[in-house]
Amino acid sequence: MDNPIIPTLLDTDLYKYTMQQSMMHRYPDAWARMEFYCRDGSSLAISKKQLKRQCEFLGDLRLGSEELEWLSTLPFIADDFIEYLEHFRLDPNAVSIEQNNGQLSLVIEGLWSEITHFEIFLLAIISELHSHSFQGDVIGQGQQFLDEKLELLPAGNTFKLVDFGTRRRFSRDWHYHVVENLKHRLPDNFVGTSNLNLARTLGLNPVGTMAHEWLQSHQVLGKSLRTSQKDALKVWLDEYGGQLGIALTDTISMEAFLKDFDLELANAYQGMRHDSGDPFVWGELALAHYRKLGIDPSTKSLVFSDKLNFDKALAINTWFADKINISFGIGTYLTNDMGFKAPNIVLKLTELNGAPVAKLSDSPGKTLCRDHAYIELLKETFGYNTSAV
Predict the structure, then answer these.
(1) Which residues does 341 contact at the CB level (< 8 Å), separation at least 6?
(2) Shortest CA distance to 265 belongs to which of 280, 249, 285?
(3) Residues 6+ positions from 360 with CB-CB distance below 8 Å
(4) Residue 201 DSSP SS3
(5) Which side of the chain, N or C, has fewer Cβ within a 10 Å radius?
């Protein structure tokens, strides 16, 4: 494929820009390393040449005046960040690509504030290139599945849905088609998208706050390893105040997170996001924690975003709807359910300023770090135990 898959630097998730703004303001000299993983070890139908060409296209992208003007209307985007973005470019030379027996190896190194955007762009590119290998009426099958899903939601249901489907989508065009369908066919349920380009072009609410890399980074940038989660959350509050107030809980584990999520932080943050472990157990832990702190759960929000389909999300909604405000970020199930298995791919921060960082999460299979000694240090420091979720 010799046409660019990514058409604009806005074709990414909101949290990439909110984190980048914080990086620019607070850690402009931080040096990072990010690595690609295919979690299930499957071979991807992609050539190194194709992927390198798409990286070169990324280096040609610039934010236009209308895009910058739209970004500036978001209340949490600062004027000096808009000025920074006027000159922002991606450097394809930061990306190292190798391929052996169908297995891709990608390493991205550079200033953290400059390379962070490669994550979503490269994952979306890899997913779309891989999807080109499938034959037959894939779009027709995808449309049938989509129609069946949208008919699952009963009229008047309190279910609130956000599109989180950029990184592992079937294609850019299919992503647009799905989100446009959600907007017009589920007006009472669909409340926004994480994708900035779709939010801008379709007049939708852009949704997102922080990703795991923000909390991981403070394992190096914070005051200490043990205080890293609190340090990350406090720096975020310093940057955004009462805005963008959904905290991600599973960089280490929910149990470790709640030990750090004290009364001050729990009051300051609007709520929490679930991304691994049993969602019902996790939600009950969140409710119990708010009650223990004397906080009325009905004043807070929970966002569920881990491998969701509508059946699972509707069951969660029924369980928690009268206890706390809830919403659901759904990705691959909507944007890459075409009759074949979507690739389980991620691209994660692995080092900062030459030191390892890691995500342990509440699902051991999601642990990503090649430094086993560091993993053991993290577990010892935080008393890591996934049996709680």
Answers:
(1) 42
(2) 249
(3) 251, 252, 253, 367, 375, 378, 379, 382, 384, 386
(4) helix
(5) N
For residue range 253-307, what is the model confidence (pLDDT) as tens digits?
A: 999 999 999 999 999 999 999 999 999 999 999 999 999 999 999 999 999 999 9
pTM (global) more than 0.85: yes
174 and 199 both lie in a single domain: yes
Look at residue 5 and tell me if it is in a domain. Answer: no
Q: Assess whether 155 and 290 both reside in one domain.
A: yes
Number of Cβ within 10 Å of residue 54's Cβ equals 25
Look up residue 235 and give its two tokens: 């720096």
Which domain does 328 fall in, by range?
A: 138-335
pLDDT digits (tens, 9 = 90+) for 158-175: 899 999 999 999 999 999
**CATH assignment of the domain containing 99:** 3.20.140.10
Choose among 101, 133, 111, 123: nearest CA to 35.
123
Q: 301 forms bridges with which residues in the sheet? A: 271, 325
In whole angstroms, what is the distance from residue 121 CA to residue 11 CA?
A: 8
Q: Do 37 and 151 share a domain, yes or no?
A: no
